[in-house]
């Protein structure tokens, strides 16, 4: 049977892609951020997961607001990155896993989550930056990735209560898949940040750390928040915390926190890296 | 419980704003293509017409008024692609919206991260 062995939270901001492309990892600005990653890379290289289920949000590469899926997932065997318009380097294709993807899609719709199911899906920095952070030099081709995309741009957006439930439904779907696969779940984005408006630059370290703590021990408590609460407490783009919440939902039971590195600011954001292992 | 109108300095991209902003956002979404960016650079006014921007949206674009673009329904995801054409990053855009220089905005971010 397929088994979820753990989860990772990580930032996915485009500035990271530029920093890696330009070799800035050891500069004073970036070092405290990149220094957090080796323990997570080591764990992934030891555990050798077959599949990564990756929660992210599209920032206007695949999806425009002409048709904006609330929840979308890929079922393809390969995904492509493309020009996002502002000059971050385009990266090599990402390997998919269509058989498990379709199993999850069937199970989710059966379970009441009416996903938009995509056989072609351009994946943006929300997905590519985390993969390159975990396997630098674009060495992620051996890992099969299932992208799950959550609307974090246009209200109404799915609420934390719903994204936790989506994650749990994905967790149950994976555990009912017959093949022996090791699966790790990535929740990418956040944490507190606001790019737009006179309130731009808002960061809330205390709230971010509280969220990381609750993701470990009491994820249900995060469902008390509405998306507007997240905006108030963490800034307009803190709704990306929904991806971290969905990831934690997919881990189903209790977890052990193996590693954490919180650093702010990176670009305009609070960055929360955390490695969780299923008990 | 926070509501749509209770958070200062924040314009929510909800349904009515997304409807209002549609031409502006559609134009900025087109900037994913290099040929569209070239076409915009060659004749901005013609490009506004092509996407049927409202007068409010054209004025905000002409003046590089980011807050004005947001008030006209702009989504920061697409406006960021326009900022890329101008060679601006999110710290530059943060400075423009808050009345700070880019360096002042970066220092503000560092201070925000310390609290």
UniProtKB/TrEMBL annotation, chain A:
Residues 8-269 form the Extradiol ring-cleavage dioxygenase class III enzyme subunit B domain. InterPro entries: Xdiol_dOase_suB (IPR004183). Gene3D superfamilies: LigB-like. Coiled coil: none annotated. Keywords: Dioxygenase, Oxidoreductase. It comes from the Bacteria. GO terms for molecular function: ferrous iron binding; oxidoreductase activity, acting on single donors with incorporation of molecular oxygen, incorporation of two atoms of oxygen. This is Protocatechuate 4,5-dioxygenase beta subunit. The lineage of its organism: Bacteria, Pseudomonadati, Pseudomonadota, Gammaproteobacteria, Oceanospirillales.
From TrEMBL, chain B:
GO terms for molecular function: dioxygenase activity. Residues 24-109 form the Extradiol ring-cleavage dioxygenase LigAB LigA subunit domain. InterPro entries: LigA_sf, Xdiol_dOase_LigA. The keyword Oxidoreductase applies. Keywords: Dioxygenase, Oxidoreductase. SUPFAM superfamilies: LigA subunit of an aromatic-ring-opening dioxygenase LigAB. Gene3D superfamilies: Dioxygenase LigAB, LigA subunit (1.10.700.10). Pfam families: LigA. This is Protocatechuate 4,5-dioxygenase alpha subunit. It comes from Marinomonas communis.
């Amino acid at each position: 049977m397929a088994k979820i062995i753990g989860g990772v939270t990580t930032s996915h901001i485009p500035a990271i892609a530029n920093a890696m492309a330009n070799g800035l990892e050891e500069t004073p600005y970036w070092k405290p951020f990149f220094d957090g990653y080796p323990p997570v890379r080591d764990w992934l290289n030891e555990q050798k997961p077959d599949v990564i289920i990756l929660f992210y949000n599209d920032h206007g590469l695949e999806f425009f607001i002409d048709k904006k899926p609330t929840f979308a997932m890929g079922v393809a065997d390969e995904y492509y990155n493309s020009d996002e318009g502002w000059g971050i380097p385009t990266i090599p294709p990402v390997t998919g896993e269509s058989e498990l993807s379709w199993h999850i899609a069937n199970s989710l719709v059966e379970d009441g989550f009416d996903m938009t199911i995509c056989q072609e899906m351009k994946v943006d920095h929300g997905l590519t930056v985390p993969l390159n952070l975990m396997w630098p030099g674009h060495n992620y081709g051996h890992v099969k990735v299932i992208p799950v995309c959550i609307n974090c741009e246009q209200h109404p957006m799915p609420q934390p209560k719903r994204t936790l439930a989506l994650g749990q439904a994905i967790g149950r779907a994976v555990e009912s898949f017959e093949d022996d696969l090791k699966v790790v779940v990535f929740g990418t984005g956040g944490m507190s940040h606001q790019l737009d408006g006179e309130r731009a630059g808002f960061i809330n370290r205390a709230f971010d750390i509280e969220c990381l703590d609750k993701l470990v021990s009491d994820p249900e408590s995060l469902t008390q928040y509405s998306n507007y609460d997240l905006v108030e407490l963490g800034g307009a783009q803190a709704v990306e915390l929904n991806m971290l919440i969905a990831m934690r939902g997919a881990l189903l039971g209790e977890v052990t926190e193996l590693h954490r590195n919180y650093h702010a600011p990176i670009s305009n954001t609070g960055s929360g890296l955390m490695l969780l292992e299923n008990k | 419980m926070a509501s749509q109108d209770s958070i200062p300095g924040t314009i929510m991209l909800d349904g009515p704003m997304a409807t209002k902003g549609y031409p502006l956002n559609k134009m900025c979404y087109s900037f994913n293509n290099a040929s569209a960016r070239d076409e915009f650079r060659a004749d901005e006014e013609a490009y506004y017409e092509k996407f049927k921007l409202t007068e409010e949206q054209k004025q905000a674009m002409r003046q590089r008024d980011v807050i004005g673009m947001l008030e006209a329904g702009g989504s920061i995801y697409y406006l960021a692609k326009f900022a890329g054409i101008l060679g601006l990053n999110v710290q530059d855009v943060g400075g423009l919206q808050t009345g700070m220089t880019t360096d002042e905005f970066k220092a503000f971010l560092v201070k925000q991260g310390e609290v």
